[in-house]
Design goal:
The chain is of the alpha+beta class. It has helices spanning about 5-10, 35-55, 55-80, 105-115, 125-135, 145-155, 160-170, 180-185, 215-225, and strands at about 30-35, 80, 85, 90, 100, 225-230, 235-240, 250-255, 260-270, 275-280, 285-290, 305, 310, 315-320, 320-325, 330-335. Helix 2 (about 35-55) runs antiparallel to helix 3 (about 55-80), helix 4 (about 105-115) runs antiparallel to helix 5 and helix 6 (about 145-155) packs antiparallel against helix 7 (about 160-170). It is globular, with a radius of gyration of 21 Å. The model has no long low-confidence stretch (mean pLDDT about 90).
Length: about 350
């Protein structure tokens, strides 16, 4: 971070690691916390985005540079390229003596992933390696951290189908640390933590209505269906679905387009060779639409995009996604990739 800011905050690394002890995966606190730095990099990137929306371009450049610099240093100093994981942080008596902690928890890898640490140009195959490590490690995190895990996986899923597949696996899990286990305890809202038993009332001293464990709610809308705003007031939106192995999905997303209530309707159907989506784009908005190949297909084997039955020549590649080069206008449309 720029000199003086961390000192002025007068915080310790434990301030941002608010997880029940059983969900810390042995995380070791050092002089420099991987998780704290990931949070700050993520936040600085969001501030840069807001500054851009407000036309404050100098501030946007500054905050984006803060985010980029932290992520670059995380890759350079804390990434284990052999394992595909991150160290918990740095420790040492002085700044000059700081060395990586010889322990890498699940949290130390999932938070940099959500912050955008993956850089395939700097480290080819980094995203896929990290996803493989997280999948092998299992759910050794709190349900709050699982929210960020899903975001990191879906970000990486733009480039690797395996990341979106694992995100769906996490949401559909029936293990002890799962939302299914909450339902099996009789929950009607998300609990404060994963249930630690197999009968109702097995979450001692925890609430049965806690929004910080509701990760799937927004991630299904924003990433599985792929509906999220690009510009203020939903003047432009992105529709970039990642349904993984789900053969069909329907969703209705309520939005405010320039303050006017509206609904984005999305209906997905995929076969072995074709991905088809019906989408309703509200008046007053426009949508950048990006489509993955059908599950199991390689991107190179699905090169055609069509809009309302007409093949479109102007397309752009974004990872494994194929995007229309121009925004799609309001109305009901059928888009396909094959």
């Amino acid at each position: 971070m720029p000199p003086g800011i961390y000192e002025a905050l007068q915080c310790t690394c434990t301030d941002l690691n608010d997880w029940p002890p059983q969900y810390q995966d042995g995380y070791i606190i050092g002089n420099v916390s991987t998780v704290a730095n990931a949070y700050i990099a993520f936040a600085a990137g969001k501030v840069a985005q807001m500054a851009t929306w407000l036309g404050k371009h100098q501030e946007a450049t500054y905050y984006q540079s803060v985010s980029d610099r932290i992520l670059m240093n995380l890759r350079a100093r804390l990434y284990n390229a052999t394992e595909g994981s991150f160290s918990d942080g740095l420790e040492g008596a002085t700044t000059q003596e700081l060395t990586p902690i010889q322990h890498g928890s699940m949290q130390a890898t999932l938070f940099p992933l959500m912050a955008g640490v993956v850089n395939e140009t700097a480290i080819p195959g980094m995203g896929l390696k990290m996803v493989g490590w997280l999948k092998k490690t299992g759910m050794k995190c709190s349900c709050m951290a699982a929210y960020w895990l899903l975001q990191g996986l879906y970000k990486t899923g733009v480039h690797y189908a395996e990341a979106a597949d694992h995100a769906l696996e996490v949401m559909r899990s029936t293990g002890m640390n799962s939302w299914t286990n909450m339902l099996q305890q009789g929950a009607t809202c998300t609990m404060e933590s994963w249930p630690d038993g197999t009968k109702p009332g097995s979450v001692p001293d925890q609430t049965w209505s806690h929004p910080w464990c509701s990760g799937p709610n927004s991630n299904i809308i924003r990433f599985l269906l792929g509906v999220r705003p690009i510009d203020l007031g939903w003047a432009r939106m992105l529709i970039m679905p990642q349904p993984s192995s789900l053969m069909s999905v329907n969703g209705s997303v309520p939005v405010l387009v320039q303050g006017v209530p509206a609904t984005v309707e999305v209906q997905l159907v995929q076969s072995r060779t074709t991905f088809e989506m019906s989408v309703t784009i509200p008046e007053g908005s426009g949508a950048r639409v990006c489509i993955p190949p059908a599950q199991g297909m390689a991107s190179g084997d699905a090169k055609v995009l069509s809009l309302d039955g007409i093949v479109v020549a102007a397309v752009e590649a974004e990872g494994r996604m194929l995007c229309f080069a121009t925004d799609i206008a309001p109305g009901v449309h059928i888009v396909s990739r094959y």
